[in-house]
Amino acid sequence: MATQTDSRVPQIGQRNKKGQLVTDPNELFFLSPRTPSFLTGSEVIREAIRRASVDFSVAYPITPQSEASSLVGELYAEGYVGDYMRGESEFAVMGECAGAAFAGARVFTTTAGPGTLRAFENFPMWAGSRLPIQVVFTVRGINSPLTIQPDTLEIAFMLETGMLLWHAESAQDLFDFMLKGYYVAEQPEVHLPIGVICDGFFVTHTKDMVMMTPEDRTLPHYDPYRSPVVCMDMEVPPVRMMRDPFVMKSNYISYMTHASWQLEIRAAIERSRKHTIPLLDGLIEVENSDAEIMLVASGTAVSQAREAIRLFRDKGVRVGLVKIKTLRPFPTEEIRKATEHAKHIFVPEFNVAGWLAREIKSTIDRNHRVVAGPHVAGGMTMPPEIIVEEIEKHMAHRRNKELVHG
Amino acid sequence: MKKRINIRMSGLGGQGVVTSAHLMAMAAAHEGKFAISNPFFGAEKRMAPAESYVRIGEEKIYDRGELVFPHVVMVYHPQVITMGKSYTMPFYSGIKDGGLIIINDDIELLTEEEKEDLAKKKVTVYYVPATKIALELAGTELATNMGMLGALAGLTHAVTMDGLDKALQDRFGKKYVASGGTATLDEAIKKKFAKKEMLLQKNLETIRRTFDEAEVYAKKNPTFAVNVS
After folding, report:
1. Residues A375, B89: Cα–Cα separation, whole Å
2. Residues 6+ away with beta carbon under 8 Å from B201
3. Which residues does the UniProt record annotate as the domain Pyruvate/ketoisovalerate oxidoreductase catalytic (chain B) (predicted)?
4. Domain residue limits, chain B
């Protein structure tokens, strides 16, 4: 696609003002040398943003993302981020992000838990306005009594906002998802906001080994002329729709416009698949798909499941795993196929609601096979020993029932 | 070394529990082992319970979060035991059979009941006056965590002195910001030691002292050494 280029913006092969080489995304992701670094998740966020040619970022403190947003501020001081400001609240932050994105900037921010919910109204607005903003949600508990610890309940609220949602298992995922996320979210046929989700503390405050791309290479700048809707213009959609909303005119045309636009957002999410699959090596990862017992999970629950599978292996029991990388688009067909031989499907989750189990139950056949759990909530850890114990308890219960009922 | 060693560090806010977990994991990473460290704390404040966890192993480690079933429990402050400033009750809850407890004090802090319970689990309890040693060698109780690390390494050989030295250089030898609070604390320490080199050297001396003492103990107690290292 032919695009206009701004001579002030360094193009692929040129260096930016920090001396970083603007690099073709696929080359950056797959061909550039990677070096191991031992970092916390917050530092990983800083390092991904250093390599992402971000124009604008807004910060507002909330644990466990405060360190990350303050580190992005340091990047701004060093000259790696175009502009940086502090917001007045999470609601204001997301509004300010929208303003910058409408004006054609690549935007980054972070929030967590109660901050996500405070900002909430903005997320479907971003999606409807086709703003490819990236937020890292470092999820934490949202409900009273107050907690600052990891709990994934807030993701349930995000599922129908129209955003792309990728759930990182580890610091490595976080680094890769942030860079690749911009690439997918900014495709003209996608052009949607993306939430890169990581579990607070389990990822943000954990020091782990991450394979990093070179510090002196960066993504090409965002090209606002590749947007499927025009940059901010008061007379054409999407801004026209906001200043003069259809809702003010109750007639069939207005309902129809609204409905078809919502469908288009969902279609755009689905269109992101073809860009995402080669970048993430599929929307899911599968291990031991022939096993009778499968664990299906996203985020840190995947890591805990991997350890539980090792414990089962030591006991001579073969257990399989499906790691879900993207929650939107939801890998429906992939999960169906990966679990077709499974007799028991367990969904370990770090929340009280079991929203992931619900998603899976609503998309696969013979869904009586799905067990919502084991669960922990409120910041509790899910030790692999407990996953094993819960599964064994459940299986024993099933066997007893079969004995009683023949 | 065991295939995996899981360490739970319990202390109070401001004692450097989080820093020492990171140092331990960095040391292990320097030696080519797999390591993960993470802290857990409430709203950050001095003297409130703070815990961090280190997992070191020979294969990739996925497990994260609070360590419920540790091999080693480290107590950085007597109040963890005497005032219940711990995330779990008792403070050694979940410890594996044949495990190790390292306590920063030189007086007995356990009840008879607790001692019996731990004996049944074949748990070794090792006392090290880390704060006293820190005051003596580094001139500040802020080096308590170094004393604790030395004892841990000397008893378990999960990491070497060389690995700890490299981790110290990484952590304090260059600019490092974990959070506003940590940065302030780092600055306070740096002023105390006047020079960064002095800080590194004094910290290392503190580690060396408790490491050597712990190594002697481990050699004298071969059954314990078999269980742990």
Report:
1. 22
2. none
3. 13-176
4. 4-224
Q: CA–CA distance from A296 to each of A2, A286, A302 (Å)?
A: 42, 9, 8
CATH 3.40.50.970-classified regions of chain A: 21-226
Rounded to whole angstroms, the Cα distance separating A323 from A21 reads 34
The residue ranges of DSSP E strands in chain B, in sequence order, are 4-12, 34-41, 49-57, 72-75, 100-103, 124-127
DSSP A145-193: SP--S---HHHHHHTTSS-EEEE-SSHHHHHHHHHHHHHHHTSTTT---
Q: CB atoms < 10 A from the CB of B185, how many?
A: 17
Which residues 49-88 of B are in CB contact (within 8 Å) with A? 62-69
* Chain B residues with CB-CB distance to A386 below 8 A: 68
Other C-beta atoms within 10 Å of A147: how many? 20
Is B36 in contact with A206 (Cβ distance < 8 A)?
Answer: yes
Task: For residue B43, list chain A residues with Cβ-Cβ distance below 8 A.
Answer: 63, 148
Q: Does position B79 have pLDDT exceeding 70, yes or no?
A: yes
What's the whole-number average pLDDT of chain A?
A: 93
Residue A208 has its nearest CB partner, among B36, B67, B68, at B36
Residue type, A11: Q
> Which listed CATH number (3.40.920.10, 3.30.450.20, 3.40.50.720, 3.40.190.10) goes with B4-224?
3.40.920.10
pLDDT at B46: 84
Interface mutation target, options A208, A210, A287, chain B, most CBs of B under 10 Å = A208
Chain A residues at the B interface, defined by Cβ less than 8 Å, are 38, 40, 42, 63, 66-67, 70-71, 74, 148-150, 170, 201-203, 205-209, 300, 302-304, 306-307, 380-386
* Single-letter code of the amino acid located at A398: R
Cis bond upstream, residue A245 (ω within 30): no
Query: What ipTM is given for this predicted complex?
Result: 0.86
The Cα–Cα gap between A172 and A203 comes to 10
Cβ separation of B36 and A381 shorter than 8 Å? no
Closest residue of chain B to A43, computed from CA coordinates: B178
What confidence tens digit (pLDDT) does each residue in A339-386 have? 999 999 999 999 999 999 999 999 999 999 999 999 999 888 999 999
Total-model pTM:
0.91
| Side-chain half-sphere exposure of A360, counting CA atoms within 13 A | 33
Domain A285-405 classification at class level: alpha beta
Structure tokens, A211: 């394979």
What phi-psi label fits residue A231: left (phi over 0), alpha (psi between -120 and 50 degrees) or beta? beta
CATH class of the domain comprising A21-226: alpha beta
